[in-house]
Amino acid sequence: MRAFSVHPDAPVQARRAVKWLAPGMGVKRWVTLFVACAALLALGFMHLVWTGPLHFVATRWILRLNALVEPGPVPLWVAGAVVMALAFVGAVWSVLMLNRSLLYATGTSPSMAVDVIYSRRSLSRGARIVAIGGGTGLSNLLAGLKAHTGNITAIVTVADDGGSSGRLREALDMIAPGDLTDCLAALSDSPVLARLLLHRFRRGEGLEGHTFGNLMLATLSEEQGGLQDAMSELHEVLNICGRVYPATTKPATLLAHLEDGSVIAGESQLAVERAGRGVTHITLEPPDLPALPAVLEAIASADMIVLGPGSLFTSLIPAILVPDVAHALRASSAPIVYVASLMTEPGETDGLTLEEHERMIARHLNRAPDVVLVNSAPIPLGVRERYSREGAHVLGTHGYLSGALRRRVRYAPVLQQGHARHDPAKLAAALLALLSELPHAHPDE
């Protein structure tokens, strides 16, 4: 499952040279074949001229070569070895120069070619990981995972109805594009494209507040009558390491059902209207939302399914409420790992404990996560105070975890320094370490 690794402290040129030796690159086999064919060609040529009708020509040529090398005769095997060595060097040099010319002709520098091949070949043999959720948490996770595997599938919630996404959704009756844009940028192998996708317009009538990525997705949705037919082309254009799909292809509205019987409609209204009242469950309107076949195939073939990190009610639960997605998750033999949030969400999950987060996921999915990954690194006091002023507090256990949950909790230091958020590299490493430990069995077994 693990991808070929190169020591990060090695010089750049050395790292690139070593990458050519990574298994599955499709390079060493062809070089070996070329050398073998060149040797056979030389042997065949010598056999042809030495034992055939051109024997006298070959003999005369060798004798003249001997006379040029030194006054005395040179053994034939020495002359042959020199010729073969020169021929081999020339053959290799010709191949290198041919590749260099071809790469430049396609707009790719030779120094970048090894990185591209490494990403496409070596990382393509990495673990098949499905990540579900939305917001900053999911995009951070994807940014960390893409250094280890190219078999990433992000299933993104599209129920957002605020900000740029809400405006585009209302105007065009499309799924919310904001979280899709963030995930596409996180998985793009092009820093320039990633930066452009996230660029937010600060001025311009009708443009202010929108990101370039949101407008691009809106254009594709309008042109093709939805994003479902455009996702494959979009992955190629943006040079995506993995795949990003919406949880559903139809616009959906989040409905939060409260303890007093009232219902809050709209993701953006939950924190505003909840006013401390408890949320009993979440539904989507309409309830019978479709899912892309590619999403269901990714879940069925996954080695690990990751929920979060992300907002419980507005990122994680809406994505698993799509009927076909929920059914595929329950039927999957892959372990489901819930990455617990570090902080509560102001106005949304105030007062909820870690166990209540996990119980809410299990209730909506009808399957409990196999593992709950919890940060073990202490959050500095200054960071906690800064978040507290915004209404967010450390997600705790309130001193108690049930035995059933305690057996499924795993701890790892995944905190990003100076912030109360997950570090992409540390979180990816912790998940891959879990993958090597967890059994791959059907939940009913």
Kindly describe this structure.
The chain is α/β, with parallel strands linked by helices and 445 residues long. The protein contains 19 helices and 10 strands. α6 links the parallel β1 (129-133) and β2 (152-156). α13 (293-300) runs parallel beside α15.
Topology, element by element:
Elements: H1 12-19, H2 28-51, H3 55-69, H4 76-105, H5 110-122, E1 129-133, H6 135-145, E2 152-156, H7 163-172, H8 178-187, H9 191-197, H10 212-224, H11 231-237, E3 243-246, E4 253-258, E5 263-265, H12 267-273, E6 279-285, H13 293-300, E7 304-307, H14 312-320, H15 323-331, E8 336-339, H16 354-365, E9 371-375, H17 381-388, H18 403-406, E10 409-412, H19 424-437
Parallel strand pairs: 1-2, 1-7, 2-3, 7-8, 8-9, 9-10
Antiparallel strand pairs: 4-5, 4-6
Helix pairs in contact: 2-3, 6-8, 6-19, 7-10, 8-9, 13-15, 14-16
